[in-house]
């Protein structure tokens, strides 16, 4: 058995719940792996919009450099899932975000992900340093 990805336990956590739609189900009768990645990205985006002041949101864009995803248990149509995310190591223009997807009914861990995000200037498309202000938003 593989050890879980190591989260930064001190980080601020953001969570939301959603229902697995029928459209997420594949030929095996459970949520397709691509859907898990979508949910990982969705909760990251929701967290960013919740912490970044509206007047500053156009100044930044985050893009994925790498996803590491560990699938543990299947999700099924109608399941209520909780996506929980928090930011770990941040330096330069990159930030590592951890995400757990759990089933709300029994808190079973279905998926865990570690995603490296790069902060870009949306006008130039070039990476920008995560400054103290942005770091403060990310870490709560």
Gross morphology is: elongated
Biggest sheet layout: 5 strands, antiparallel
- Radius of gyration over alpha carbons? 16 Å
Number of separate strands: 5
Helix and strand composition category? alpha+beta
First-residue to last-residue Cα separation:
33 Å
Helix and strand pattern: EHEEEEH
On the 0 to 100 scale, the average pLDDT is: 92
Strand content: 35-45%
Give unreliable regions as ranges: 1-10
How are the strands of the biggest sheet laid out side by side? 1-3-4-5-2
Number of helices: 2
Can you walk me through this structure?
The relative contact order is 0.24. This protein has two helices and five strands, in the order βαββββα. It has a five-stranded antiparallel beta sheet. It is an alpha+beta fold and 140 residues long.
Task: Give a quick rundown of the structure.
This protein has 140 residues and is of the alpha+beta class. It is built from two helices and five strands.
Topology:
Blueprint: E1 13-19, H1 33-51, E2 61-71, E3 80-91, E4 94-103, E5 109-120, H2 132-139
Antiparallel strand pairs: 1-3, 2-5, 3-4, 4-5
List keywords for this structure.
140 residues, alpha+beta, five-stranded antiparallel sheet, 5 strands, 37% strand, elongated, disordered N terminus
